[in-house]
Structures
1.
Amino acid sequence: STSSFSYASYHTLEEIYSWIDNFVAEHSDIVSKIRIGHSFENRSIVVLKFSTGGPQRRAIWIDTGIHSREWITHATGIWTAKKIVTEYGKDRTLTDLLDAMDIFMEIVTNPDGFAFTHSMNRLWRKNKSTRPGIFCIGVDLNRNWKSGFGGNGSNNNPCSETYRGPSPQSEPEVAAIVDFITSHGNIKALISIHSYSQMLMYPYGHSSEPVPNQKELNDLAKDAAQALYEVHGIQYIYGSISTTLYVASGITVDWAYDNGIKFSFTFELRDTGRYGFLLPASQIIPTAQETWLALRTIMEHTLNHPY
Amino acid sequence: QMNFTGDQVLRVLAKNEEQLSLLRDLEGLKPQKVDFWRGPARPSLPVDMRVPFSELKDVKAYLGSHGLAYSVMIKDIQVLLDEEREAMAKSRRLER
């Protein structure tokens, strides 16, 4: 049962996967589990599907944990999944959304890396892929996408934390998402959640050129950041990735935008300079609560602005 | 489990592009030693980097010699990790 699960605590991969199974069993009318692939070390890559019916409906994609040491993102994803089922039928916006669209959530996007953070190195960021003749392990999964691959803000040195990998989508964790989203064909928003720095950003990362929908994305980011602020008074800055944070190539949201997903956003969750990746568990619920309002704002806009 | 006793996270505030460039040089000078939690991007953003205990003296000397102002964001990473592990264990007991 998920009733004894503490949403205010960090959990191992096994505990999260066990929670997912129980969660799906308890809410089988609205949630199902899809295995979209497997990791380099052959762990299952699992997606939760929230749906009230109908095939291939318009959908929203949310992923957390692509950088394995960013534990607050997995914890926020779990809380958010629970929030979706508890708010359906109560929250008008979410109910309208789920009556028309599906939500897909990938809570552990980098399972090998995440398991490694629990067993060997809490501060591991990349996946765990190895290649013959290469000493260093792992690829930065947020530099491995086929959009601006190999450009500035990524690294061709396998020992770098931002190593892009040998080729676009060479990593099974990335390829699984690409295959799933591409074959689905009706994903209208993609939100990739990272930590930390308190930012909400949209494409591009690989270029400082504004995207064609820059104004709409900026206005929406502003509204989402404001909704987030109103929960606990936490301020997020917002803007394009390249102008707000840094130039980064081969990243998730650039790929999403270039593949027709207009509402592509990435979060950097709490904090701004005290704990970094080691955010205490006591901040999981507040972080998730405020993130939810921002997510809800983006999801509502996606529902009301079909394209 | 890797031990991070004595490792620190330093927060550096670069004043200009030249200072950012000096921070980027650190990656080359200390390959795989300095782990940028927030990389050198622009002067308006702080740079956070995890420095192993064994490299602390060198890195702080490098920062000081180039006039790079810094503060200690996390004094001992292992202390936080121990607290985190204890909190998880406690929660696991309660869940059971």
Note: The mean pLDDT of chain A is 97.
2.
Amino acid sequence: IIAGKNARLGNFPWQAFTNIYGRGGGALLGDRWILTAAHTIYPKDTPSVQNTSIDVFLGHTNLEEIMKMGVLPIRSVFVHPDYDPNDLNNFDNDIALLELENSVPLGLNLLPICLPDSETFYEKGLMGYVSGFGTEDQIIHDDLKFVSLPMVARENCRRWLSEKKSEQVFSDNMFCAGDKTTKKDACQGDSGGVFAVKDETGNRWVAAGIVSWGIGCGKGYGFYTKVLKYTDWIKGIIEKES
Amino acid sequence: SIPIVHELYGEVTSPMYPKPYPNNYDDTREIVVPKGYSVKLIFWQFDLEPSEGCFYDYVKVSADKKDLGRFCGQLESKRGNPPVQKEFVSQGNQMWLTFHTDFSNEENGTTIFYKGFLAYYQAVDMDECSAQDSAIEENSGLRCEHLCHNTLGSYFCSCRPGYELQDDEHSCRAECSSELFTEASGYISSLEYPKAYPSDMRCNYSIRVDRGLTINLEFLEPFEIDDHQQVHCPYDQLQVYTNGKPVGEYCGTRSPGIINTSSNAVDVLFFTDESGDSRGWKIHYTTEVMKCLQPKSLDEFTIINNLQQQYQFRDYLIVSCKTGYELTEGNQKLKSFTSVCQDDGTWHRPMPYCKIVNCGAPQRLPNGNFEYLTKEGKNTYQAEILYTCQEPFYQMANKEKNETYTCSAQGTWKDKHGNKKIPHCLPVCGKPLNPVVENQR
């Protein structure tokens, strides 16, 4: 997290720490599922290694403490079938679900986040929070950091990519967030964590996006998987497996 | 004589009949019929020279070593001694007919011809029984000691109940060692009752009736069996057994009265010594259907369906429990209970008791808890518990704050809608207790 703040216990109780091909994030859904980015499981720039271990931790804002709480065994992994790890310029469908072997006991520091059910969570300017154990200015921290970022209008996202002469695909399944005037952004190691938006009417936090990709860190916008597009896929898997 | 043997009937005539019989004739015909029959002789024609005392010509009938008559003359005449009675019956199976004629048949110098006689004989069944008093039977010693039965051409003897015909087929001896009574009611008595019973008897009177019947014995008066003032029944004894078990041993003059044996198998044994002249005993036995004890509930929750005033053999009862209680036999729960009244008057299985239904410890609610609304730890019928989820992290799927479950009569915990499934505590999403708050502006 670039230009973020340290999170306090209970601020982001859904935050998962994953260690697969490297540091990653995720968010707790219910008491047995982790929402994350597909590319943390099948990275774009790394040949996939079979039987790579997937270590998942939950329940704390400090890495040492969270790891003391023990790794959570995974029962199964569901990567979106349309995610293509071989297409370096396309992070479309960058979403995956990890099913924990056992339910986790919810508590103060361990609570799930809700899924979005409306486009109202994607209005431009709507502030969301991104949290993670990722890098900040090439420094890696052991404490969970967060940053608040505004949702950006799609046209602006597209224009910014064009200015950057980026060949990356910006699909309808994505949104971008950030502020060009600040360095605030997510960064490597935050992938899989969620862009959480407060639903003021329902008084709840919703996982509007998943940290997916960006062009560098802290230099413009960050790109996120638009979770609303995948709620049917998510619910379908969870219901089927329950 | 010329015997005529073993014919059942026949004809006897004078020589040359119906032509005049010869002079100076003398013979005796012996008529013999099979043993057991008498000889019956009938004169149909009789025409002999009449004379005073039948001195000249005559027919003599003899039987049973007796002369039955000496006859002459004509049947329709009073001269001589014609056989007016016509019929002669022997006691034994033999009869003799002697025919004698003198040298002439003249009257006043004129020869008169007489036709002679024509007689028929037939074998007539002898009633040996009525003849038993006769000298013949007495002499032969063959007299039925008890009962005589005449048959065609013979007879046989039998004995009164309790006696057995001996090898001589006439005499009877007391025999009561294996008397069997299978009727539903009847009388049994010592031999010769109410006269003195015979000596040296070993009698066994067995009463066997159908299963499910019980035998009652009623001793009638007089009751009299040889006794002794100091020693109990030293001479003669009457013993009663049911199913091989002794009920009592009786003698003297005091009747045992009525004995309800509660059994369908009773043996009455009677032993006598070589002396005594007591009058004996008589039992009127009856039977009734075996009854079972009136069933009684072991507790206040037991229901005996359609309770009867009385239960007898093959009746059955059905037992159930009040709502919330279950039939229990020993430690085993029963789905239903039926007991049948048996032939020995017992129930085929003992009464069960009704134990209050126990639903067992309530199912643990994942991510939730329960508390007892009734007595702590009470899991029996109508106990109530309250399920709650671990709020605020979990909430019930139906959004209720809590759910009350009651221990049902079926032994399961059920909610107010009758559902057995316990509530489901779902994780509460998106509501951190310590959300991020940024105060700096």
Note: Chain B has a mean pLDDT of 90.
